[in-house]
Amino acid sequence: LMAYAVLGPLTHATLALALAWTFKVPMGDAILLVVLAASASYIAVPAVVRYAIPEANPSLYIGMSLGLTFPFNILVGIPLYVGVAQRVLG
Q1: Buried b (16+ CB within 10 A) or exposed e, 38-73
Q2: How confident is the model at residue 1, as a pLDDT?
Q3: Which residues contact 66 (CB under 8 A, 6 or more apart)?
Q4: What is d(CA 53, CA 12) in angstroms, rounded to the nearest whole number?
Q5: What is the pLDDT of residue 61?
Q6: What is the pTM of this model?
Q7: pLDDT at 43
Q8: Where are the alpha helices (DSSP H) in 1-90?
Q9: Measured between alpha carbons, how far is 85 from 79 in angstroms, rounded to an integer?
Q10: Does 33 score more than 90 pLDDT?
Q11: What are the tens digits of pLDDT across the range 63-89?
């Protein structure tokens, strides 16, 4: 669970960056796409899991989303995504 809390956003960001590069999206738009894709795991997951898996423990998925994934994205993820996007997209 903890591995997904960190690796999920990185995977989503990588996929978004690959799509931005493939479709020649301008850098500013690509960075926004990457950040939003990485953020989807803590924005959408709590609401989806609540309905999709009603027996799931809310303290786990909300706790991991807001306690680990969100701070990771703010402190490490966004600067990393911007740096990688600048290198890849030029």
Answers
A1: bbebbeebbeebeeeeeeeeeeebeebbeebbbebb
A2: 85
A3: 42
A4: 22
A5: 87
A6: 0.88
A7: 83
A8: 2-22, 27-43, 45-52, 58-64, 70-72, 78-89
A9: 10
A10: yes
A11: 999 999 999 999 999 999 999 999 999
The two tokens of residue 64 are 């991991």
Q: Are 24 and 88 within 8 A, CB to CB? A: no
CB-based contact 45:79 (threshold 8 Å): no
Whole-angstrom distance, CA of residue 77 vs CA of residue 7:
11
Per-residue tokens: 5: 């809390």
Place of tokens 């809390």: 5
Tokens linked to 12: 């989503």
What is the C-alpha separation between 53 and 26, in angstroms, rounded?
Answer: 38
For residue range 50-70, list pLDDT tens digits in order. Answer: 899 999 999 988 899 999 999
Q: Is 26 left (phi over 0), alpha (psi -120 to 50) or beta?
A: beta
- Please report, as a single letter, which amino acid is at residue 51: Y
